[in-house]
Design a protein that fits this description.
Layout: H1 3-50, H2 57-70, H3 89-129
Helix pairs in contact: 1-2, 1-3
């Protein structure tokens, strides 16, 4: 075997390794995002079930904290609260919850993209292996 074909084989092997690493990275990312979507869904469901537009920040944060503790997570992060009266606490709270729900939707979109990338990479790998 000449040096040129060995270089080609090394390059093919490196390409395969990189693809396998990318597949594993995407699998892990997909797994983590699924967990995040599940947790955000649980929080969203709990907030929608127990809170309404008259709920105070403390009531909603209590719902979130209780929900997370039920899943073994300790809620330590407190969302930033307006301090200069630019917005009312209730208005800020509605915006905060809308952002949480939008983040969940964005993560679900990213999850779909990752799944498509993973499917494409697996298909490329399978096609290459069948040659």
């Amino acid at each position: 075997m000449d040096a040129h074909s060995m270089d080609d084989q090394d390059q093919i092997r490196d390409t395969r390794r990189k693809r396998e690493v990318k597949i594993e990275e995407l699998r892990l990312e997909k797994f983590m995002r699924k967990i995040l979507v599940q947790r955000l869904s649980v929080i969203e469901d709990a907030v929608e079930a127990t809170c309404d537009h008259n709920s105070t920040l403390a009531e909603i944060m209590g719902t979130v904290e209780t929900t997370l503790k039920a899943y073994g997570q300790d809620f330590k992060g407190i969302p930033p609260c307006p301090t200069f009266g630019v917005t009312s606490l209730e208005a800020w709270l509605r915006v905060f919850m809308a952002e949480v729900f939008a983040k969940k939707d964005n993560i679900q979109d990213e999850l779909r993209d990752i799944t498509q990338q993973l499917t494409r990479l697996k298909k490329e790998r399978d096609e290459e292996e069948s040659k």
